[in-house]
Design a protein that fits this description.
- The chain has 2 domains: 216 residues, Hypothetical protein, domain 2 (Endonuclease III, domain 1, Orthogonal Bundle); 117 residues, Nucleoside Triphosphate Pyrophosphohydrolase.
- The chain is α+β, with helices and mostly antiparallel strands.
- The N and C termini lie far apart (70 Å).
- Helix 2 crosses helix 3 and helix 9 packs across helix 11.
- About 4% of the residues have low confidence.
- The protein has 14 helices and 9 strands.
- The chain is globular and about 75 Å long.
- A hairpin with a 2-residue loop joins strand 2 and strand 3.
- It binds a DNA duplex through helix 2, helix 3, helix 6, helix 8 and helix 9.
DNA sequence: AACTCGTGGGG
DNA sequence: TCCCCAAGAGT
């Protein structure tokens, strides 16, 4: 019977791993600038490191400080997030930058409770910023830490479950050391990303294997518990492609809902145009994590009734979407959903 | 508590 | 190809 790690021995092993093998040269490391650390933490939410790196570099180049970000337009910010997904992150980031400017005189708050009041920053992200930027002894609990803790202490159940999450936070708080917290937090994520991976973990080389309850009971695969799977629904829509004088008509999507704040092709559920006014392009399926979107792109001929298009493009009369015409160059200055961007690029290549 | 919110990597 | 899920947060 294996005895579990004591919190002090656990954190000592983890910190030792940081000095020997931890990641220290990612683009947002080697600085204590809270703005850069904050930006990286937001981009890294549910997004892999290799995906984030080029977005982070471009973003910092265009908006080097929180003041630059606060003063940027919505479209500028969304353009820099285009393709990264979870666009509420970008809208909340922009809002938070303006709050920091107006309510905190441009100075990033240091205590975790205040940091967590900013939009888009939850408990774990607040803990990460407070420890990395300000050296505070705050705990984090991202996917990596959840996996390492669930295995080390054989914490059963899916982390999305409230009780399981509470148990994981309890263990995270207990094990987070008061000293060298930043090194500990970074190393926990490094262990999860490099050694304690979700498939084929490298237990023989893990500094925590000696007292890892899952490893020593040969039940690594049971931890963390898996998310219950559900059927993915499917939606069908038409996208209207209306090109006049080298410009394409786009609509700005409302702030809430899918692709909020991005410019997309006008979308309708049914087509009410006569067949001679439209050309059906190749249909395709865009797969989200929670549903499939079946898209039938419709290329409108130049004599199609524009008024009809406009009418169909506004599902709600109460809240008409913002619409505008964009030239090819202007498409680089706004946020576009990935499938819209791909479709337009393909269309322009063919013509 | 359960659901929503993107996209891409890797098995 | 299909499926899981990533440095989670908001509602």
């Amino acid at each position: 019977m294996t005895t579990p790690w004591s919190p002090t021995d656990f954190s000592a092993k983890v910190i030792e791993y940081y000095h020997a093998h931890g990641r220290k040269h990612l683009p947002w490391q080697g600085t204590q600038d809270p703005y850069k650390i904050w930006l990286s933490e937001i981009m890294l939410q549910q997004t892999q490191v290799t995906t984030v790196i080029p977005y982070f570099e471009r973003f910092i180049e265009s908006f080097p400080t929180v003041t630059d970000l606060a003063q940027a337009t919505d479209d500028q910010v969304m353009q820099h997030w285009s393709g990264l997904g979870y666009y509420s992150r970008a809208r909340n980031l922009h809002k938070a930058a303006q709050i920091i400017e107006t309510e905190f005189s441009g100075v990033f708050p240091q205590d975790p409770e205040t940091i967590e009041t900013l939009p888009g920053i939850g408990r774990s992200t607040a803990g990460a910023i407070a420890s990395f930027a300000f050296g505070q002894p705050t705990a984090i609990l991202d996917g990596n830490v959840k996996r390492v803790l669930a295995r080390s202490y054989a914490i059963e159940g899916w982390p999305g479950n409230g009780k399981v999450l509470k148990a994981l936070w309890q263990r995270a708080e207990t094990n987070t050391p008061q000293q060298e917290t930043a090194a500990y937090n970074q190393a926990m994520m490094d262990l999860g990303a490099i050694v304690c991976t979700r498939s084929k973990p490298d237990c023989p080389d893990c500094p925590l294997s000696k007292h890892c309850l899952a490893y020593n009971s040969n039940s690594i695969e049971q931890y963390p518990g898996k998310k219950p799977k559900k059927a993915r629904p499917s939606k069908s829509v038409y996208w209207l492609i209306n090109i006049r004088q080298e410009k394409v008509l786009l609509h700005k999507r409302p702030p809430s809902g899918i692709w909020g704040g991005l410019w997309a092709l006008p979308e309708v559920q049914q087509k009410e145009m006569s067949p001679d006014q439209i050309q059906q392009l190749d249909p395709f399926v865009h797969k989200f994590s929670h549903y499939d979107l079946q898209v039938q792109p419709l290329l409108l001929s130049s004599n199609a009734d524009k008024a009809l298009v406009e009418k169909n493009s506004h599902p709600s009369i109460m809240e008409p979407a913002q619409a505008d015409w964009f030239s090819l160059n202007q498409l680089n200055e706004i946020g576009l959903p990935t499938p819209v961007s791909k479709l337009l690029v393909k269309l322009l290549e063919d013509s």
